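Form 7-S
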Amino acid sequence: MVDKLVNSEANTRRIAMVESCFGSSGQPLGVPGRVLVGEGVLTKMCRKKPKTRQFFLFNDILVYGNIIINKKKIQQATYHSTRRSQIRKFR
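Output:
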């Protein structure tokens, strides 16, 4: 399934929409060969209390951030590579 979506127009539009949610605070997500596999709201278990986050699962990275409902923006994106065990935070 992922192979069929790699160069599809629908995949490109979905990735552009996710990229626009992060605004200028995020890094470019439109990388050749990248596919948006799934997205949704999950509860991240943090030290003090559980926190709701918007998650985007790509074929090579996992991206999540805080949800701002009024502006439909997501702030403080965190990128986790599925190929390397490395977490990077952007504000």
